[in-house]
What does this fold into?
Amino acid sequence: MAGRIEDYALIGDMQTAALIGRDGSVDWHCLPRFDSHAVFASLLGTEEHGFWRVGPQSNGDEPPKAARRRYRGDSLILESEWDTPRGTVRVIDFMPPREQHAPQLVRIVEGVSGRVPMRSALRMRFSYGWVVPWVQQIEGRTVAVAGPDSVWLDTEADTYGKDLTTYSDFTIAPGERVAFTISWQASHKSPPAEPDPESALEATADFWREWVDHCTYHGPYREAVVRSLITLKALTYAPTGGIVAAPTTSLPECIGGMRNWDYRFTWLRDAAITLSSLLRTGYHQEALAWREWLLRAVAGDPENLQIMYGIAGERELGEAELNWLPGYEDSTPVRIGNGAAGQLQLDVYGEVTEALHLAHMTGLARNDYASLLQLKLIGYLEDHWDEPDEGIWEVRGPRRHFVHSKVMAWVAVDRTVKLIESGDVDGPLERWRDLRDEIHRDVCEKGYDKERNTFTQSYGSRELDASLLLIPQMGFLPPDDKRVIGTVEAIQRELSTEDGFVLRYPTSQLDGDNVDGLQGEEGAFLACSFWLADDLAMIGRVEEARKLFEKLLSLRNDLGLLAEEWDSKLQRQVGNFPQAFSHVPLIDTALRLTASGAYGG
It folds into this structure.
């Protein structure tokens, strides 16, 4: 049975990732890319769907869980330790950053004290647990083959096969180290080179040490910021610079529910906040790679902007259900692909333009196409900004005039007006100034409830939406505007959980019409909760902002990782994990509070 979502650790090589539980089991691993089929999929099913456990042997039904675990310093090298009646053992898990070599997952067992009986149990199941591979021995190496894929196991330990699983039983003593490595290779190619686990460990440690040294943030929340930056780096697909929203699919937003989506793609709305975080913490190279990915993905067809793309810029992300997987804690369906890619979400025009504006303002290397693209986007938006859409939350109900979408349309025009005013490009300055004013008036007249002194989710609605918290952050209105303060206070009253975190919107509307067209509830959305902390600081309630931020930090697991949401009833993380859209606003809020001097100690 899979562990709680927060029980998992992340390791990765900037092209794919793996989740490892407290019991030493790799329960999720896609090869060779984030969006490839999983070879270990027990996270969404049972052990029959593939896993790889390395840990002390046990006579009980449940494998023992590590007494301690940590990342080695500021790295993505995981160290888990078990205390047993016979001694203490450590397992070191990592994935070497990939260059020319094949994708590798390395597990080194190290004796600490006593003599501990150990077991490696490797059950590979390709195509998300559907396909049992053909396993054979070739020149002392174990290889599993199915269709286009092959996975090679290398170890000095003796192995044997039983029940369609490859086992290794051995005893580890103090100072001894036994390594296991799996490597992926296309099945029609020659075998991958035999790995050197110890050299790979040293190189991986050097990589992360050098990368973290570029971080320019040295404030009171450095530990949380650096861990979030490492997580963002781990979610980056290095060959293209795209960043996946999460390395998983179908981890539920409500345990046992149907709100289960594939997040192994790159969302354009992440562009502005990700660029901002990277630029403000010293990572200009990553920001540049992200901008170049953005330009390639959008190239050639900016009028038909998608809200998300594949990690190499792919546009076809067709959604399907894997009916042989029972889902995480019976949360079905399990989905791959994402049908929301075809939605109309006008806010992305604002987010892309904001990203390009930030890149321009912070002095990233000039790209003339970026400015041309910005003009083309506004040319499209000029004719379509007043249409209804599906909005930031990708609702699957009817299209509406979402206030956030209109605000972001205003952002797109405002940033482009500023670009023209700077003299870097030519454009219809007066016409677009008038357009900016028209959108602003429209939002303030149709999206604002005067009686309650709050903006609303959509025109004509009385419901609230946490995306309204971005109004002051985007500069649509100043923080001291009474309408901004009223909106922040209304969201605190009507969209906050008992423990003070923020829901995206009411899943059950006052008029009985579910805005997102789905059944069930969801947890508090962590990004929105960070936005609330930002707004509280902006409107002068700095101490309250700090307390909320530090409360949010307490929700991280023992390794500093956050999923998409928090279930206040079950007191556990829910949604895909770890979630870039949670870690980016964590960084931004830390920077804002540090600048304001609002921190404890």
